[in-house]
Specification:
The complex is a heterodimer.
Chain A lengths: L2 E5 L2 E3 L5 E8 L7 E7 L5 E7 L6 E3 L7 E6 L4 E6 L8 E8 L6 E2 L3 E5 L2
Parallel strand pairs in A: 2-11
Antiparallel strand pairs in A: 1-3, 3-8, 4-5, 4-9, 5-6, 7-8, 9-10, 9-11
Chain B lengths: L3 E4 L2 E4 L5 E7 L8 E6 L6 E5 L3 E2 L7 E6 L2 E6 L8 E7 L6 E2 L3 E5 L1
Parallel strand pairs in B: 2-11
Antiparallel strand pairs in B: 1-3, 3-8, 4-5, 4-9, 5-6, 7-8, 9-10, 9-11
The chains are: A mainly beta, B mainly beta.
Chain lengths: 117, 108
């Protein structure tokens, strides 16, 4: 059974940092593109970043570039999102997702990040 | 960036009726790399359709996708109460990947 389990969310103040993790199981993690997608309260889905299976390519949405860093550890079947200089507008549920191509075939349940003074 | 516009914003239909959801792209989606997802509150989104018309594994054949270029459609042929959800299209051809704003399907 495929599982993606996010962790690391929480309440932080503006300007602070947070590192999200996603533990994968049930599929060949190293072969999959992995994504972070977020959903702000009352809003729709918003793609944030993706990383190729071997980690050689990374892409970001423009408003997180330079603040967020996506990475992976294929030995641990884990995906990460380092979020620095967080802003109130980064408040959202963050989902981990993965697919053989750029489509997100598998999804986790999400972890909540709240940025507030 | 490719902007996706979904319509209608909300669809309210009875069980057994047919739902037609539209997704229009601001420019052509290369190779029709367009996906549809179903999202229920508090749950993980679920992939329904890949590459505009390919049903994902385990998805009932009530769900079908069509279209090409800039105009795409998700059809739910016979609505079931469990289909109540928000449906999103996403273009997976160009970075940044983008989602439409969603269509909420309500079952009367």
């Amino acid at each position: 059974e495929v599982q993606l389990v996010e962790s690391g969310g929480g309440l932080v103040q503006p300007g602070e940092s947070l590192r999200l993790s996603c533990a994968a199981s049930g599929f060949t993690f190293r072969s999959y593109w992995m994504h972070w997608v977020r959903q702000a309260p009352g809003k729709g889905l918003q793609w944030v970043a993706m990383i190729k299976g071997d980690g050689s390519q990374k892409f970001y949405v423009d408003f997180v570039e330079g603040r967020f860093t996506i990475s992976r550890d294929n030995a641990r079947d884990s995906l990460y999102l380092q979020m620095d200089n967080l802003r109130a507008e980064d408040t959202a549920v963050y989902f981990c997702a993965g697919g053989l191509g750029w489509t997100a075939q598998y999804w986790g349940q999400g972890t909540l990040v709240s940025v507030s003074p | 960036e490719i902007v996706l516009t979904q319509s209608p914003g909300t669809l309210s239909l009875s069980p057994g009726e047919r739902a037609t959801l539209s997704c229009t792209a601001s420019q052509s989606v290369t190779n029709n790399f367009l996906a549809w997802y179903q999202h229920k509150p508090g749950q993980a989104p679920r992939l329904l359709i890949d590459d505009a018309s390919d049903r994902a594994t385990g998805i009932p054949d009530r769900f079908s996708g069509s279209g090409s270029g800039t105009d795409f459609t998700l059809t739910i042929s016979r609505l079931d109460p469990e289909d109540s959800a928000v449906y999103y299209c996403q273009q997976c051809a160009h970075s940044p990947l983008t989602f439409g704003q969603g269509t909420k399907v309500e079952i009367k």
